[in-house]
Design goal:
The complex is a heterodimer. Chain A is α/β, with parallel strands linked by helices. In chain A, 32% of the residues lie in helices and 12% in strands. In chain A, α1 runs parallel beside α2. Helices cover 38% and strands 23% of the residues of chain B. The chains are: A alpha/beta, B alpha+beta. Chains A and B meet through β1 and α5 of A and β2, β3, β4 and α3 of B. β1 of chain A pairs antiparallel with β4 of chain B.
């Protein structure tokens, strides 16, 4: 049986068909707010966080949900920041469920109560993805700059299962917690999760700032591959483990977003519609807003979506590469961040002219002394880059 | 920490009575003209036979019952069908799509 299409960054399974014209998207990542009580130094949000007074209204989000369903979107990922920081989450979930969308709450959990979770379930919430920073409470506190988070998350996981909802544990992995992986796997089984995402972090935005503090060594990374392989076999039928490798140690790039403008769209707290959550880092792209245009028009004709859709935009070595419709040249944002041109091959690809140099930097940083973490905070993004 | 027993793998046999848990949604998508299974952060595209089988997974019928029904419908030997659908259902169970 085939998986239909790329659904998340992790679940990028390309389907072999013509890719230059748009087809209906599968998933929508709804970043309801950039507010978050945690300050994880690898946050996937942009360095310039959107503020509460920029956030679109309840009615705007409900409108997005209705349009998403009409457009053929199947799954809504309610994310942030911390989506439960929005007091109208219930209204948004209710509308999403009413129009038949599969609803997924991506949460840090620390703001939830059992009563609220039950209400969300009763309104139609289908699935909860709970992030953990580490199984060791002290280290989790240090990574997230949030005291008591690990204990609270454990409680939330228990509530999810008591309410008979399916649970995914999401464990971003990096140099500061990589040795905990076996215990993270045990934790996922113990709390009754059906899925575990072991996600080596991706080095954009905040994580790129903190790269030297977060990049694991190649040896440490390879060890995680072994651990996951063993656990998958041992836990077959009990726990599904999804594994995201760090780009720096990959041979080929990941098919970022399953291909640009191909299966996923992202709406920011202020209503801007992006082909991926980091797309604002690429200059020259124009982002439409859900308050100004219908979602379908943005998906089909939006300048930002059309810019890197399909393969026509490609240069060599992507253009003639037999893998061009497998990985779509990797990540545009990473290509821009590291080469200055978003149409270049992602440096994660071994065919990129800067791949060797780039991988060497990662290796050097991973073996060097870890600098202090730069925490994700509102306000002006910290200017001090991680030392090379 | 947890009071619940350690979870174990669901092993599909002819006697299994399977159903889709509430959070797994088998539905026909009009726009795409396809049957789909919506699951946590996954979308599966079941083939025609899988759709037929899954529609019969009501928690009452056994896998053997379903094989018998399909054998009549497709005029095929029941043991062959039973083998095929057991393997397919096991694969789906391992993905978390079915429970007993």
């Amino acid at each position: 049986m085939n998986e239909l299409a790329p659904d998340t960054v992790i679940e990028a399974t390309p389907v072999n068909e013509s890719t230059n014209c748009a087809r209906a998207p599968i998933g929508l990542l709804a970043e309801l707010t950039h507010r978050c009580p945690l300050q994880c130094p690898y946050c996937s949000n942009p360095l310039e966080l959107e503020r509460v007074n920029q956030e679109i209204s309840t009615a705007d989000w409900q409108n997005v949900m209705r349009q998403a369903a009409e457009l053929g979107i199947l799954q809504i990922h309610l994310s942030g920041g911390e989506p439960t920081a929005r007091t109208d989450l219930e209204d948004i979930v209710e509308t999403a469920a009413e129009v038949g969308l599969y609803t997924n709450l991506i949460t840090a959990g620390v703001l939830l109560t059992k009563e609220r979770l039950q209400k969300l379930r009763d309104l139609g919430l289908d699935h909860v993805q709970l992030s953990i920073q580490d199984v060791d409470p002290e280290n989790a506190h240090r990574i997230s700059a949030y005291k008591g988070g690990a204990e609270k998350k454990h409680e939330v996981a228990k509530w999810v299962r008591e309410l008979e909802m399916p649970l995914t544990i999401n464990a971003p992995l990096h140099r500061q917690n990589i040795d905990s992986l076996p215990r993270i796997i045990d934790y996922a089984v113990e709390v009754g999760a059906g899925r575990l995402e072991v996600a080596h972090i991706q080095y954009y935005a905040w994580a790129l700032r903190n790269r030297a503090a977060l990049m694991p060594t190649r040896e440490a990374f390879m060890k995680t591959v072994e651990i996951v392989d063993e656990a998958r076999e041992r836990l077959k039928g009990i726990l599904v483990i999804d594994f995201v490798v760090p780009d720096y140690y990959a041979k080929y790039p990941k098919p970022c977003m399953g291909g640009w403008g191909r299966g996923i769209m992202n709406v920011t707290p202020s209503g801007r519609v992006l082909p991926c959550h980091a797309a604002e880092s690429i200059p020259g792209l124009e982002f439409d807003n859900v308050r100004d245009k219908p979602l379908a028009e943005i998906w089909l004709h939006g300048q930002a979506f059309q810019k890197f859709r399909g393969t026509d935009w490609m240069k060599e070595p992507c253009r003639s590469c037999p893998r061009r419709e497998i990985d779509f040249g990797g990540c545009r944002c990473q290509a821009f961040a590291l080469t200055g041109d978003a149409a270049n091959t992602d440096p994660a690809c071994s065919l990129s002219p800067v791949h060797q140099e780039w991988a060497a930097i990662a290796d050097k940083e991973a073996h060097g002394k870890s600098p202090e973490l730069i925490y994700r905070r509102m306000g002006k993004a910290p200017s001090a880059p991680a030392k090379n | 920490m947890s009071k619940t027993a350690q979870p174990s793998r669901l092993v599909v046999t002819g006697d299994s009575r399977l159903r889709l848990p509430r959070h797994i949604k088998l539905r026909h998508d009009k726009g795409r003209g396809k049957w789909l299974i919506l699951a946590p952060e996954r979308v599966f595209e079941p083939d025609e036979i899988a759709v037929e089988v899954l529609k019969q997974c009501d928690g009452e019928r056994t896998v053997q019952d379903i094989a018998t029904i399909l054998a009549a419908e497709y005029q095929a030997p029941v043991d062959v069908i039973l083998n095929d659908i057991t393997a397919m259902l096991q694969e789906l169970a391992d993905k978390g799509v079915l429970r007993s």
